[in-house]
Design brief:
This protein is of the alpha/beta class. It is 33% helix and 21% strand. The strands form two sheets. The protein has a seven-stranded parallel sheet. Strands 9-8-10-11-12 form a five-stranded parallel sheet, sandwiched between helices. It is elongated.
């Protein structure tokens, strides 16, 4: 039996937490391992890591009993006091910021680990600085069924850029469009329903992202998607003819909206599009690649 240590500090749902949960569940599905998790804020009602079957929840973080340590994001802060070179480390990398020499995450790259990268852009960015192999594992995701009903012309997801989101909302309303704006953190269901019910979804990620999960979610649920370029989303920009990238500036966004919002251009069959996205971003394929990695480590 191989003991594997996980650590999570949960404050609110994010795509980053979701991907760590996916890898925890991939691990639970692998024969011959025992998962140990230290979880902060387990009592939160929205905590996606609480009450998982077959998980040993630690009252105090103690990775010393594990042969393998799984780390993501800032988990290194908690792990470094216990650093053991004999332990195998798997480090999930989900953002381009890890390659920024001014970031805390860049400092962690000096420590030996096998790094799983959620996009080719992330792998290419960190590879020159990382101590250990960098492996690209295509993002796996599940897309819950949502009853599709039209209820707005324009949906703007602007949690990361609320000021720009509010200006886009004002632009849309000046054109006589019905607009829904989410400029604060929302439950996943609310976001999916808004994407599914809008004629056009506008996404405003940070200038750089490691993958930006709402991009493929909007491509799956929405009729049309306009998204600012965040480097990693170029990987899936051509997944469907209903998704278009534009520059990061407000002028570029408005110009693209003027063209895209009122376009009568025909788009690919909805069922065909969703099947392509499901296949390309299969959670099962992600699990198979991770299990293959564990097997190669003799686990």
């Amino acid at each position: 039996m191989t003991n594997i240590s996980f650590h999570r500090k949960f404050t609110a749902y994010t795509g980053g937490h979701q991907k760590v949960l996916d890898y925890l569940q991939h691990t639970l599905a692998y024969e011959g391992v025992k998962c140990h998790l230290y979880l902060q804020n387990e009592s939160r009602e929205d905590c996606i890591f609480s009450k998982l079957d077959k998980v040993d929840y630690q009252s105090n973080y103690d990775p010393s009993m594990a042969e393998l340590v799984f780390l993501a994001g800032l988990d290194w802060r908690a792990y470094l006091p216990y650093l053991n070179e004999a332990q195998t480390k798997i480090n999930l990398i989900q953002h381009l910021r890890h390659a920024d020499p001014t970031s805390e995450q860049f400092y962690f790259l000096q420590h030996k680990a096998i790094r799983i990268c959620v996009s080719e852009a992330v792998r290419d960015a960190i590879a020159p600085f990382a101590n250990g192999p960098c492996i690209y594992v295509p993002m796996g995701h599940t897309f819950p069924s949502i009853q599709k009903k039209q209820f707005c012309d324009l949906y703007v997801l602007a949690k990361k850029r609320p000021g720009i989101g509010r200006r886009i909302k004002a632009w849309g309303e000046s054109k006589g469009l019905s607009v829904i704006l989410h400029d604060e953190l929302q439950p996943k269901q609310n976001v999916f329903e808004a994407m599914s019910g809008a004629k056009l979804t506008v996404l405003l990620p940070n200038k750089t992202e490691g993958f930006y999960l709402p991009g493929i979610e909007a491509a799956f649920y929405s009729e049309k998607v306009l998204m600012t370029d965040c480097i990693a989303n170029r990987e899936y920009a051509n997944i469907s003819s209903n998704l278009r990238l534009c520059d990061f500036s407000l002028d570029s966004i408005i110009a693209a909206l003027e063209e895209f919002c009122f376009s009568s251009e025909l788009y690919s069959n909805f069922l065909e599009k969703t099947n392509v996205i499901r296949q390309k971003y299969s959670l099962e394929d992600e699990r198979k690649q991770f299990h293959s990695l564990l097997s190669s480590l003799g686990i």
